Amino acid sequence: MVEELVTAGVSVAAAGVVYVMAAARVVKQYERGVVFRLGRLRSSLRGPGFTMIVPGVDRLRKVNLQIVTMPVPAQEGITRDNVTVRVDAVVYFKVVEADKAVVNVEDYRFAVSQMAQTSLRSIIGKSDLDDLLSNREKLNQGLELMIDSPAVGWGVQIDRVEIKDVSLPETMKRSMARQAEADRERRARIINADAELQASKKLAEAAHQMADEPAALQLRLLQTVVAVAAEKNSTLVLPFPVELLRFLERATPHASQTSYTPEAEQEQGAQRTPVTPRVPETQAVLQAALQQVQQQLQRGAGVPESGAAPSEFGAGTAESGTPGANSRQD
């Protein structure tokens, strides 16, 4: 009898241990337990720690409340300004209502991933290339709103969305590089032109100052000679100011307008070059010769009248055909 009682007690104890082991559950701090009793959702969620369920009747499902980092695969699309790009992003989200995340959506991770890819492609089509490259904060906010709107009904909260990289075609990269180079070259030319303008103004002021003080030009010339000679060069290039030439031109008297004679050469004892007559005298001589030729053509003989001096250009041809005749045959 005693043995039967002991055996029954051991059996009950063993059954109790098995029941406790089957009913015992442990929920971690970052998890929440959703209990289904006979397929129906229990209103109360199981918090972290030790909890018990009815074996065979209840089913406990744990939901992670930590922030999930999900990369969005690179999506290829065409921007609003017709540029083909590949954009990838990353989504940070967490579950705030465990019961909705289990009941309202089959797999909230997959749903968020698909919604992120669709929203990313939509953002690419609505944006320009410059916005994708420089105005990412605004695009991140728009993308976050597009994903968060349907995720609210799933018990999921989108923490933030970040666009990681924008891949451009090689031709577009070269075009952008050329554009940047052209812009920098334009700015360099503007800076150089501004420097030339300022330098020209300073040089003009210096020129006016030297014009008032002629000695300043000579001092500047000596400074230039000293600067060139400091390099210990074998050849010294000496600049000759144009103002000095003008000074010499004003100081030199005008030469004689007539040709030099042998007597003048003997008196002066130097070789001289004949000076060209003045323009008015040359015009007078040409006009006189032209009048003589016209008179000869009117008479039809080609020679001047008797007693007239022959022209400087020589007598014409007579009617007899003898060149250079001084009288006309009757």
UniProtKB/TrEMBL annotation:
Compositional bias per record (Polar residues), positions renumbered to this chain: 319-330
Q: Which organism is it from?
A: Streptomyces monticola
Q: Which Gene3D superfamilies is this protein grouped with?
A: 6.10.250.2090, Band 7 domain
- Stretches assigned to the Band domain: 22-180
Stretches that traverse the bilayer? 6-27
Which key words tag this protein in UniProt? Membrane, Transmembrane, Transmembrane helix
One Pfam family name from the record? Band_7
Supply the name of the protein: Slipin family protein
